[in-house]
Amino acid sequence: MHRVVGALVASLLLLSAAPAMADSAAELISSFRLKHGEVRVVRDSTLDRIAMDQARAMAAKDDLSHDALGPFNRRVAPAGAGRAAENIAYGYDNFEKTLGQWIDSSGHRKNLLLHNASRVGVASARNASGKRTYWAMVIAGDYEPKGKGKGKGKGNKDAEPLVAVKREAAPASKPKSESKPKSSSCHIKLLSLCI
């Protein structure tokens, strides 16, 4: 019974620490970016989820790979960013040391300094043995402001989903309207029969 209670308390502590880790990770990344002429980044729940999925996939396979879940461009598409980059690592148990590792690597450093980046997601996961921690960071920017699509009218990027919905809805409703007799030729309607 004590083990169950202990496990529950430990789980709750880990869950409550996850947002704090992501916030402090965003602050650490922002601090580095500000020193190098770039703007702050803030935590983003979509990017956190993308990073967590990647970290968990690498931990499950015990393999450091950007393709653990498939191509990055497909995985990051739900974020809706114009530009995005991913850093991955394994080994360190804390983010500060992992960030230091990325700062010391030219390619990872370039990703940390992604121009116009405004949002970040960071996650870690342990492999099955619990001996290796995998990290994933997704940084993104060039988000299109809501309500301000490119162009005007039907070509507006934000309006496109509505147009698609309308196109799908029109054929479904058209047969119904065609099957109804015109109201002028129907004097009495009884059980869907026009007399």
Describe the structure.
By secondary structure, the protein is of the alpha+beta class. The chain is built from 6 helices and 6 strands, in the order αβααβααββαββ. The chain has a domain at 25-142: Pathogenesis-related Protein p14a (3-Layer(aba) Sandwich), CATH 3.40.33. The strands form 2 sheets. Strands 1-3-4-2 form a 4-stranded mixed β-sheet, with helices on both faces. It has a two-stranded antiparallel sheet with strand order 5-6. The termini are far apart.
List the helices and strands and how they pair.
Elements: H1 2-35, E1 42-43, H2 45-61, H3 72-76, E2 83-90, H4 95-103, H5 106-112, E3 117-126, E4 133-141, H6 160-179, E5 189-190, E6 193-194
Parallel strand pairs: 1-3
Antiparallel strand pairs: 2-4, 3-4, 5-6
Key phrases:
195 residues, alpha+beta, Pathogenesis-related Protein p14a, four-stranded mixed sheet, two-stranded antiparallel ribbon, 47% helix, Cysteine-rich secretory family protein, signal
Strand content: 15-25%
| Gyration radius from CA atoms, angstroms | 26 Å
The biggest beta sheet reads: 4 strands, mixed
Q: Order of strands across the widest beta sheet?
A: 1-3-4-2
Summarize the structure.
With 195 residues, the chain is α+β, with helices and mostly antiparallel strands. It is built from six helices and six strands; from the N terminus they run αβααβααββαββ.
